[in-house]
Amino acid sequence: MSLFITSLNSGSNGNCYYVGNEDEAVLIDAGISCRETEKRLKRLELDINKIKAIFITHEHADHIQGVRVLVKKYRLPVYITPRTLHQSHIFISPHLIRSFQPYEPVVIGNLAITAFPKLHDAIDPHSFVVSCGNVRVGVMTDIGRVCPHVVHNFQNCHAVFLESNYDAEMLENGPYSYGLKNRIRGGKGHISNSEAFRLFVEHRSPFMSHLLLSHLSHDNNTPTLVENLFKSMAGDTQVIIASRFEETAVYHISSSVDLIPPILSEPVITYESLVKMKPVRKVKAVKNQFQLNLF
Questions:
Q1: Among 58, 160, 194, 248, who pairs with 122 as Cys (CB 3.0-4.6 Å)?
Q2: Which range (34-48, 84-98, 202-216, 278-292) has the least confidence?
Q3: How far apart are the first and last CA of the chain?
Q4: Strands 106-108 and 111-117
Q5: Dist CA 57 CA 75 (whole Å)
Q6: Alpha carbon separation from 44 to 40, 47, 199, 290 (Å, rounded)
Q7: DSSP class of 176
Q8: Could you give the dihedral angle defined by the CA atoms of residues 17, 108, 23 and 97, in that order, rounded to the nearest 10 degrees?
Q9: In terms of C-beta density within 10 A (0-12 exposed, 13-18 middle, 19 or more buried), how is residue 234 classed?
Q10: Which residues are in the Metallo-beta-lactamase domain (predicted)?
């Protein structure tokens, strides 16, 4: 079994990730227009009719702005939690709405899509791992902190779309207001290059073949900074920078029979263990930083 993956777009201007096998595929988020989605898939020679569903991570516009037209044109089911749907204010025909629960796989053909909770300033945010046989691909962007859920799933993937949103020094010295800076780095916004790098160095699996660094800030980061940081420790893992302007190539993700990751299940996590995880950068405390309903 193997998976084919690409980032159709990644950034605050729109996020859309394709994961599929020879017969079926899913989109994780649909944050670019239907027309751009079609054009980019065609350039990559990927058949849009193989897409069987869209999975929504959270309600922010850069993750959902293409949903309505895609669903209307292709009659695709949308997997979205009730609270995220309510908060998104997008109309989807009721018979195309599906829900999901954390760590309860949704099976679509030979694909299994497993959601897990994350910290982000949205109503009910989740990340996803898409599996086909023994091959696992994670989509982990908009993660305010490297919490135990992220670590647990990251270390069991063959490939990951991982957020590397900002350079801490660029953010600190940039033009953003103090409030916006703390929204970004305060534990429920985004993770920095150094936080993503530490996750990669400390928790990547021996079978991780591809790392697609995603959701780079336009104002507080550069692809060169990210590439230079990660390639210094990449080893056998291919490091790719997902663009905010165009699609990446299609990458073929396969599994060695000698390196089979364990079955994914919900980690044993307490509120206290999450609170003890410190961010790389110390910032002013944010009220209600953690939501118990994530567990």
A1: 58
A2: 278-292
A3: 32
A4: antiparallel
A5: 19
A6: 6, 9, 30, 40
A7: S
A8: -60
A9: middle
A10: 13-190
User: In whole angstroms, what is the distance from residue 1 CA to residue 135 CA?
Assistant: 7
Residue 171 structure tokens: 């953010």
For residues 92-106, one letter each, b for 16 or more C-beta atoms within 10 angstroms of the residue's C-beta and e for the rest, the string is beeeeeeebebbebb
- The three-state secondary structure class of 200 is helix
CB within 8 Å of 152: residues ≥ 6 apart: 116, 267
Give the Cβ contact number of residue 218 at 10 Å.
11
Span 68-108, pLDDT tens digits: 999 999 999 999 999 999 999 999 999 999 999 999 999 99
Class of domain 2-258+269-282 as given by CATH: alpha beta
Q: What are phi and psi for residue 89, nearest 5 degrees?
A: 60, 30
Domains of the chain, residue spans: 2-258+269-282
Reduced to 3 states, what is the DSSP secondary structure of residue 149? helix
* Digit-coded pLDDT (tens) for 236-271: 999 999 999 999 999 999 987 555 565 566 665 543
DSSP for 13-39?
A: T--EEEEE-SS-EEEE---S-HHHHHH
Say how far apart CA 161 and CA 148 lie, in whole Å.
Answer: 17
Classify burial at 174, counting beta carbons within 10 Å of its beta carbon; exposed 0-12, middle 13-18, buried 19 or more. middle
Q: What pTM was estimated for this model as a whole? A: 0.89
Which strand ranges, in their side-by-side order, compose the sheet holding 111-117? 106-108, 111-117, 126-132, 135-140, 159-163, 210-214, 238-241
The residue among 131, 126, 156 whose CA lies nearest residue 143 is: 126
Q: Would you place residue 278 in the very low, low, confident or very high pLDDT band (cuts 50, 70, 90)?
A: very low
User: CA torsion sign, 119 to 180 to 195 to 5?
Assistant: positive
